[in-house]
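Example 9 (inverse folding). The structure is encoded as follows.
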């Protein structure tokens, strides 16, 4: 069930991304951010995209509540495959054979990773000490990535911002998992008086700004693979660190799982370079789920 919910979340996110980008691209050129937002909220299709994004968050929350962080976050990589299918089946974009091959590599490698890694165990509530050190480590990584962006080349700046955004996205997933558990076990009042729900909102806002900055500065062939790959990689680390999840200790199986993850990365990079192009309009107001 968690894998199915994660797949549905990835599908909803892909639908929301396509619809919102198309709506934003139809906006008059040269509009400021405040006027652009006013224009978009009057567009039914943009609102539909927002609804799809909210549905994606809800499905991800349910998946994280029922399953493990180390399983749910890697499955969300399938959003790229759904984007490819939507562009071809619904929007009738031409798709090269290499893009379909990349999608197949992602699907097979992802399945192999989940089977070989065999995530197991875990607990729903991290300790305060684990939270502290995880926040210091991930927050430090985000700050370093942003500082390294500096005045470097557009490609390097985009890569740094995308890495920072993806790291925050993984951290968002931990907040979402914790807040969902509190909501389901202690009720709404307890969830609203606990800090993870507010940390989730703050991380989401900062991540959205970083994503948009990365998309404006550099090409999708750089930003998209980093946004998609760094998130599950950091999530796996956080799943062990915060929630006590663990993997098989068989060397051969671990090696197979590592190779499968490399296959996912290779498929994402290939799809980013060979897939159909969807230009990003200035000021696009979208934010992918954590």
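The amino acid assigned to each position is listed next.
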């Amino acid at each position: 069930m968690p894998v199915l919910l994660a797949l549905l979340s990835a599908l909803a996110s892909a639908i929301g991304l396509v619809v919102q980008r198309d709506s934003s691209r139809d906006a008059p050129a040269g509009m400021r951010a405040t006027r652009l937002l006013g224009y978009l909220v009057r567009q039914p299709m943009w609102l539909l995209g927002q609804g799809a994004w909210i549905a994606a968050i809800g499905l991800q929350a349910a998946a994280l509540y029922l399953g493990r962080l180390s399983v749910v976050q890697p499955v969300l990589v399938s959003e790229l495959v759904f984007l490819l299918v939507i562009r071809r089946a619904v929007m009738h974009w031409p798709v090269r054979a290499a893009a379909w091959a990349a999608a197949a590599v992602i699907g097979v490698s992802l399945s192999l990773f989940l089977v070989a890694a065999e995530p197991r165990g875990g607990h729903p509530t991290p300790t305060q000490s684990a939270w502290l050190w995880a926040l210091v480590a991930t927050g430090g990584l985000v700050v370093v990535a942003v500082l390294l962006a500096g005045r470097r080349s557009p490609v390097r700046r985009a890569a740094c911002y995308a890495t920072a955004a993806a790291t925050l996205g993984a951290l968002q997933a931990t907040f979402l998992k914790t807040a969902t558990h509190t909501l389901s076990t202690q009720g709404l009042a307890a969830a609203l008086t606990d800090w993870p729900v507010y940390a989730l909102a703050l991380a989401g806002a900062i991540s959205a700004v970083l994503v948009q900055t990365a998309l404006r500065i550099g090409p999708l062939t750089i930003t998209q693979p980093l946004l998609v790959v760094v998130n599950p990689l950091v999530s796996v680390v956080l799943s062990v660190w915060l929630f006590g999840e663990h993997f098989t200790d068989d060397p051969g199986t671990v090696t197979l799982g590592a190779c499968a993850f490399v296959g996912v990365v290779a498929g994402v990079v290939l799809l980013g370079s060979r897939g159909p192009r969807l230009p990003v309009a200035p000021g696009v107001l979208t934010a992918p789920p954590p």
